[in-house]
Amino acid sequence: MKLTFGSVEENVVTREEFPLAQAQEVLKDEVIAVLGYGVQGPGQALNLKDNGFNVIVGQRKDSKTWDKAVADGWVPGETLFELEEACEKGTILQFLLSDAGQIALWPTVKKHLSPGKALYFSHGFGVTYKEKTGIIPPADVDVILVAPKGSGTSLRRMFVEGRGLNSSFAIYQDATGRARERVIALGIGVGSGYLFETDFYKEVTSDLTGERGTLMGAIQGIFAAQYEVLRANGHSPSEAFNETVEELTQSLMPLVAENGMDWMYANCSTTAQRGALDWWKPFRDATKPVFESLYESVKTGQEAQKSIDSNSKSDYRAKLEEELKELRESEMWQAGATVRQLRPENNG
Ligand SMILES: NC(=O)c1ccc[n+]([C@@H]2O[C@H](COP(=O)([O-])OP(=O)(O)OC[C@H]3O[C@@H](n4cnc5c(N)ncnc54)[C@H](O)[C@@H]3O)[C@@H](O)[C@H]2O)c1
Ligand SMILES: CC(C)(O)[C@@H](O)C(=O)O
Ligand SMILES: [Mg+2]
Ligand SMILES: [Mg+2]
């Protein structure tokens, strides 16, 4: 259906328009092979299975994630296979290895992309940056995308709660004439709430910007800046943390989620409203140049290159873990750990 966002009309597919039964009908003869069992793999594979689709998982044997797949109920030799075997068996290959990992597996995947199969991504990365990744799909397969707009963990949680996480969807190549029904059916199958139409380039550039920006990078940066200023002015760690993070996530963001920032503002004191109305523009103006250089870095492919280079190294996990440890051990997030223990659900 067409929906108007602000004053712009966009194409959105709903579960009412395209019910699960229709998705099951569209995909009844398909074997969906979910390749990779990291974060998106489990969420999408389990939701598809619970929605009644024919799904198998492909994962490297002798890995922690193979064991996780077994623990989640996938049966070796029946529904869980080595990556290449899954590529061979699947008619729809859901390429859910890490974006850098996809480069290494591509020759194997390509070998098994016989005419009429579908190659499915959850990120526009691989084909948009094809000069860097070498991922150039053959012309006789469908190339489609469903990108859940959130973590695989939330995709599964929201499915189990009977809700659904919104996803973007796109078609890069329609070889069979069925790419559209296939991609929408898969979008419904993996547990999407609403499906927003986009293209591969727009998906990858917005996604890379968002996660580096307000979803993760910018928000951590702004938390750290405010926390440091409060601490430098003699505020205790708990006071600095509560006033920077805890109140935001526990009290104010849920209100923003329900009804928007304007409504949250209106439910705070007029003192807060006056100040926050005065200060949001200076913050916008101070950070906008950073967002502009971030977008430029995404657009030129620099962000993709950095991610490929570092995540292709054999010790990339250990390196990431080292930096995550630094974040975890920072005073702000140590304070956070103690503050979280005080929540009723965590203190027995
Ligand atoms: N993490 C998310 O919640 C999320 C959200 C939206 C989209 N995506 C996209 O979904 C895709 C999968 O992301 P993810 O975060 O689930 O991946 P991930 O980093 O968790 O890795 C997934 C799997 O890839 C395997 N892998 C990595 N390198 C490999 C290699 N060289 N050979 C074989 N296996 C290898 C790992 O063992 C793991 O099981 C990516 O395109 C990502 O951008 C992820
Ligand atoms: C969950 C995110 C941040 O939206 C996703 O884009 C990812 O790459 O993990
Ligand atoms: Mg992303
Ligand atoms: Mg994202």
From TrEMBL:
InterPro entries: 6-PGluconate_DH-like_C_sf, 6PGD_dom2, KARI, KARI_C, KARI_N, NAD(P)-bd_dom_sf. Its cofactor is Mg(2+). It holds the Pfam family KARI_C. The keyword Isomerase applies. Substrate binds at S269. Mg(2+) 2 binds at D207, E243, E247. Residues 199-346 form the KARI C-terminal knotted domain. The keyword Cytoplasm does not apply. Residues 8-198 form the KARI N-terminal Rossmann domain. Its EC number is 1.1.1.86. Mg(2+) 1 binds at D207, E211. Gene3D superfamilies: N-(1-d-carboxylethyl)-l-norvaline Dehydrogenase, domain 2, NAD(P)-binding Rossmann-like Domain. GO terms for molecular function: isomerase activity; ketol-acid reductoisomerase activity; metal ion binding. One of its GO terms (biological process) is isoleucine biosynthetic process. Pathway: Amino-acid biosynthesis; L-valine biosynthesis; L-valine from pyruvate: step 2/4; Amino-acid biosynthesis; L-isoleucine biosynthesis; L-isoleucine from 2-oxobutanoate: step 2/4. Keywords: Amino-acid biosynthesis, Branched-chain amino acid biosynthesis, Isomerase, Magnesium, Metal-binding, Oxidoreductase. It is an enzyme of class 1 (oxidoreductase). Belongs to the ketol-acid reductoisomerase family. This is Ketol-acid reductoisomerase. It comes from Nitritalea halalkaliphila LW7.
